[in-house]
Design brief:
It is built from eight helices and six strands, in the order βααβααβαβαββαα. The structure holds flavin mononucleotide. The site of flavin mononucleotide has 18 residues, from helix 1 and helix 7.
């Protein structure tokens, strides 16, 4: 079976990202991700960078020079093996000060060969949908890491209380329902990229 991972970029203790990921991967919300992927026999697994707790990137050897998974740090070797086991990635990123979070950049920079050529879909969120974070992440993944990135980048606008307040999305994630069309377009383009590789 083809395997895809949803990588949650925020590592905040009570991140909106975790709640949005639950919404996106649930079969009991209007999220089109589970049904579109299942209809192509593609499984979806959530990866929480918060749970992985990767060390900060401090290596002298550039990952480009390493044959996976032979990294000096065991946590990074595990990360390498995990990433290698997937056929594609959906990155879920918040916008922090017009960019994407350091936690996600750190997770990307630890590896190289594991990402190259793999299909990707970027889903962002923020006050106005986090489009600037998505644009940055697209440059890094499509350019620096040579991934095959979907053009469409669904951008989920958060209600004002979520952006400024200490509380996260709360249990009521119904404000996400209006993005079903954008998400469907994005995931269908992503699936086409995943299937292209198999042919
Ligand atoms: C350090 C920081 C910077 C932020 N900068 C932006 C921003 O530039 N644009 C925006 O729309 N929201 C911004 N926000 C609001 C976040 O998009 C919002 O808090 C979101 O819930 C953060 O995602 P997370 O909870 O999954 O970490 C910022 C939040 C933080 C913590």
């Amino acid at each position: 079976m083809t395997k895809v991972a949803l990588i949650v970029g925020s590592i905040r203790a009570h991140s909106s990202g975790a709640q949005i990921a639950t919404y996106l991967t649930s079969t009991s919300t209007p999220s089109p991700l589970p049904s579109v992927l299942a209809s192509h026999d593609i499984s979806l697994e959530t990866i929480s960078l918060a749970e992985l707790a990767l060390p900060p990137f401090t290596e002298d050897i550039v990952p480009q020079a390493i044959t996976p998974p032979n990294y000096p740090q065991p946590e990074v070797s595990k990360w390498s093996t995990l990433v290698s086991s997937f056929d594609g990635f959906i990155f879920l990123t918040p916008q922090y000060n017009w960019g994407y979070p350091a936690s996600l950049k750190n997770a990307l920079d630890h590896l190289f060969k594991e990402w190259v050529g793999k299909p990707a879909l970027i889903i962002s969120y923020g006050g106005r949908g986090g489009g600037k974070a998505a644009a940055q992440l697209k440059i890094v993944t499509a350019g620096g890491l040579d991934m095959r990135v979907a053009e469409k980048t669904p951008a989920l606008s958060l209600p004002r209380g979520v952006i400024t307040g200490p509380k996260t999305v709360s249990d009521d994630t119904s404000f996400l329902d209006v993005f079903a069309g954008d998400l469907k377009e994005g995931v269908e383009e992503f699936v086409a990229l995943v299937n292209e590789k198999k042919e």
